[in-house]
Amino acid sequence: MRMALRRVGAVTLTALAVVLAPTSTVVAAAQDPVPPESAGTQTVDEDPEFLELHIDNVTPSTVTTTSDPFVTVTGSVKNIGDRTVRDVSVRLQRAPAVASSEGLRTSLTLDQSRYDTVGMFDTVASRLDEGQSKQFTLSLPLRSDTDISLDITEPGVYPLMVNVNGTPEYGGAARLDDARFLLPVFGVPGSPAVPPDISSPVAVTMLWPLADRPRLAAGVPGSVTEPVRLVDDDLATSLADGGRLDELLGAAEFATRESVDRDHTLRDSLCLAVDPDLLITVENMTRGYLVVDDPSDPTGSAHEGAGKDAASAWLDRARSLAASMCTTSVPFAQADLSAITEVANPDLTATAVETPADIVDNVLGVTSLRNFVWSDAGVLDDATAQMLRGDEATTTLVAANSIDTTTPRDSAHVIEATPPPAPVPANGETTPAATETPTATGSVDALLFDPSVGTALAAMGTTPQTPSYTPERARYDLSDDSQTARLQDALGAVSWSALEPGAARAAGTPRSLMVVPPQLWTAGAEDAKTLLSTVSSLMRSGLATPRPLSAMLGRQPGSPELATLEYPDQAAEDGVPAHIRDAAATQTPRIEALNAALVDDPQAPLTPERFTAPLREDLLRSMSLAHRRDDERRSAEEASDVRADEVAETMDDLFGAVTVVSPGGVYTLASEQSPLLLVARNDLPVGITVRLQVDAPSGMTITDIGPTTLPPRGSRTLTVPTEANDSRKLVVKFSLTTADGQQLGEPTSVTVRSNAYGQALAILTACAGALLLFLAGRRLWHRFRGQPDPADEGYERS
């Protein structure tokens, strides 16, 4: 239903009440009595809404030569207005077959007058009161020489519409709502049947994503003893029977089992695309985990999670399936690659796009496809393409409309490979090229997928989304359509290129199809199974052939032309905001500095990398694109803000956990060269190497003691050589830093007093000594001469 886009208001149609009354004499070629609008016109409706039409089921979902020759649509009509609606009736209408890829979406927003093949009205209810709902069933032949039909005589993808009319109280009869969907027709049943053209089958490659939004509680460093903490227990539900991830995995398991896919055509075309963050979370859940009571307080109160067994069972199934088919990884936590490029930190970049393959291999026990990058946004900018460039050829996956190329194709050059730098000569002399900083020399190629197909797939499921690459003319409110209608749109989009070889050849489009759902896909079990069944039917009928993803990697396109990347404004709008990027740019160097300062003890189970890695990964989780393009965007943004704040707070706490303990009171030196004794404390579970920074006044000289290692959760006495030349109380400031100068803890002030008196004491001592020598010499002089000393006058003996 797209009432805001296409429906003409009921009030404006009151004068047509008589014309619109249901009748059994309607003919197949009759037009809806609503005043016609120009082709493609979209009318904005500001009138009250009265009825809501919902499609529940379409049978058959895909028409073949062996199908029943009827299309049956079941659904419901609900009165959502403030008054009774009378004479509620529905009918089925058809528009011409989709003739272009773009039409897979734009045909669903055409004016109703373009759906010019119509059936008869069928009365749903003579009266529908406020809040009341009524079921209906419409059935119409695909073709008929004598009766009213949809007049479908050849294979193709056909837009269908269910139109509902009624007469609200205090108004006239009007078209009050409609619902639209696509019907793929592989072949027309009947006598004679019309089979499809299989002379030019399309090559199909399909990605099957297994991903979830970030679930681990933010700002919690790594540990070998503490269980992981999750922000909620929704993932346990998703992994259990009937959950989203259980159903996605189960659909792939069923469709590729030996009894179903005997010739392995579907398995060969399919590749699991797994989020490493999901695997990390699930694997930790298998050991037992906690769920925090308040996501903004990750270290606060928590309760035991309920998904340990479900996680173990799901992970075992994922390992089994991955071992039997193509498997690759997606960027960590579906992170925004454009944001990561802007942060420009090598460690963060490696964690996002290089480490995921290692995680997938280690957890699932497989060897995944390498040098393949699928951005969650479906588009790349030039800077990101340069960031992805390595020494080997890298293949990316992007929407075809994000590449500016003069020739339609299924892949394109983005960056050409360059010759490696010249080697150092044998005589040891260096050349200018040999002394330059090494740069990546590999090429970057792009596999292209149809944005209309990707958009239709993204609209499937319980939480539909509109990708960033979807053109503005193809964007509309997905919540107006039922889940069944959106599934039909996806089936039609996937089938179109196989059913329209002539249109594809005329457009110069390669005969290939990349089936690319969104990474966070909410398709349920039935939707997923129906989609896989449709792709399998395409191959069994000869309309398609499998094309493994591995065969596409590193493959050169047909033309040497370099294509230009186009980054849509919508992708920037849907991306990670500037304050999250700034937070990552601020905290990443701090994480690196702390990691470098921590001591890697081979005997300790907790290594520096294991301790700090979750914090770096949390920054990537804060830059996740999960749910940023659907109705849960607000909650995704809030979760991102909380995660970034928690990482910053945790880093402050970790740096504050290493400090100099203030001795308190006044510290008295025994002499002017007595050492100063300080205590440095480390409350971290990993040892750390620190440097003591001193801010001493002019009357004191303190010698640098160099790097000092503090034990885990322990303290160490620091003996600091000190020379004091002043007997006054002096205030000395001490602090600890990492080797690169990052401050640890708060500076500590120590008041020092020395027993040294300095130069004045030396002068007084010298003067007193000189006076003593003078007086002693004088007495001896008088004694040698036999003269009384004048100083003894008045003290003669009696």
UniProtKB/TrEMBL annotation:
Residues 417-440 are annotated as: Disordered. The keyword Signal applies. Keywords: Membrane, Signal, Transmembrane, Transmembrane helix. InterPro entries: DUF6049 (IPR046112). The chain crosses the membrane at residues 756-776. Residues 1-28 form the signal peptide. The keyword DNA-binding does not apply. Residues 429-440 have a biased composition (Low complexity). This is Glycoprotein.
